[in-house]
Amino acid sequence: MDRTILKNQLENYRTPYEEESDFIKDFAELTEDPLAYSRERLEGHFTASAWIVNRKRTHTLLTLHRKLGRWLQLGGHADGNENLIEVAITEAEEESGLKSLKLVDSNIFDIDKHIIPQRPHVPEHFHYDVRYLFEADINEPLIMSDESISLAWISFDSVVDMIGYNPSILRMLEKTSKSEILL
């Protein structure tokens, strides 16, 4: 996948979620920027995430992010890689140790544009996060990275209790529950 394929996917991406629809044009325009996949683009840049679920669609794998102090899906910066599926897989494997990851669909599962707070030497900026749906074996041992405080399979019924209000995670959870993409 390269920026042309991503742009085409974004231009054809349809969602019933208003907040997500509002992002599509911004994402498609960003594909034209030569620095879109690099942290050097200080206003904002692409990231990629893996929404990982077990095969029975009862649990999702979340990490308690060390820098942000919130439960999130696994993912990270593109760092120049225009293949965001590769980025999502690499980040998920690095952050979880999972080797059983299976991409359910190469189409975009979800998108979210969110602000990242200022830190020393890094100004406040946007992450244009492209998410893909993955399955993994819930019984495979997890290996937590230094980027996490905790890493756990969370039952769909407990996600809201764990994360509080995070509309993008709740949206992905709802999409998974309603998904036509089954086993």
UniProtKB/TrEMBL annotation:
Domain Nudix hydrolase residues, every copy: 43-176
Give one Pfam family, short name only. Answer: NUDIX
Q: What is this protein called?
A: ADP-ribose pyrophosphatase YjhB (NUDIX family)
